[in-house]
Amino acid sequence: MGTGTxxxxxxxxxxxxxxxxxxxxxxxxxxxxxxxxGHQGGxxxxxxEHERPYERPxxxxxxxxxxxxxxxxxxxxxxxxxxNDITLRLGTSVVAIDPAGHTVTLADDGQVAYAxxxxxxxxxxxxxxxxxxxxxxVLYLRRAEDSERIKAVLRPGARIAxxxxxxxxxxxxxxxxxxxxxxxVLEAAELPLLRVLGREVAQVFADLHRDHGVDLRFGVQVTxxxxxxxxxxxxxxxxxxxxxxxxxxxxxGISPATGLAAAAGLEVxxxxxxxxxxxxxxxxxxxxxxxxxxxxxxFGKHIRVEHWANAVNQPQTAARAMLGQPDAVxxxxxxxxxxxxxxxxxxxxxxxxxxxxxVVFRGDPATREFIALWLADGRVLAGMNVNVWDVTxxxxxxxxxxxxxxxxxxxxxxxxxxxx
Length: 420
Description:
The protein is of the alpha/beta class and 420 residues long. The protein has 11 helices and 26 strands.
């Protein structure tokens, strides 16, 4: 791995490097994009984890299920960083940014100077604000070791309570059932994924998990995690009942890691605010991935997307922008995917909660082989294909075109999307 001497500021005849804070998928992809774009100067990639950059989707999917081996989660092989002259500093926390001095300060009081700075700091799981949350057996999923801890408790007959019926909660529930565990999912809303998908499509996922033996409980409030001897034993609900549990997995969302940016005086609002070039309020500081609330030219507003595709693609734009390429604009349509049991899905587009007026189905949702399209004023905002493949590109084209479509033709599987 690279071990360069990028801690030097000006002087000594060396130019300041580009520094990336966050040795994540986004950070590694940014370093890769900088070299691909011809950058010959120094690149320093700093991460607080001791693992080299890896992808997070497998942590709730294949790696948790045991079908994806450990070596497959990494972005690059270990020798890649040295071969590409990337200084990789792992197990290192950045505690402050000095935009005026163009330096970052490390936890050991060392400093690294930068010419340009990219923040790929990602996000952190929201903690459950109830008594008993600190006990052993209360698990969160963000890092590889978190996935391993959860995997260790997924065994036949184990009682697993999952708090939160979002994507992470449902994928963990599916993995737990595959392992033979007894699973109870506790959710404050009326359906899983209700804010993301709306009632029409959320019901599909409720039916899916019930059909696989998950005890789904909606409209519930968690008031306490009970336990004995410092180890969790159950989840107490607002109605006084207790759900027995050998382990509790909490998946109630994530928050963007913006502390460094805010302390440095950068503009922060539901993430680090950037323009369409992923440049922050400081012209030499950029942000990408979960932490970035970026202006999107297609939607005409700032959006923050917490999915793999942003971590893969935004750093390419940020790299080109840092190298002074004025046409580096991030305008990709958001995309994500999920696998649960025998259901695979892809989603492309962007819809704020309640921001649509109609869902058009192409196919029958009851068969779990269909396409759902969210519309507003006759225009397609987003689409989800469930166990139907090779359709994301035409759906994306519908979204980008912003043209008014005929809903009846859109629902007809015999009519190409371009003719709807």
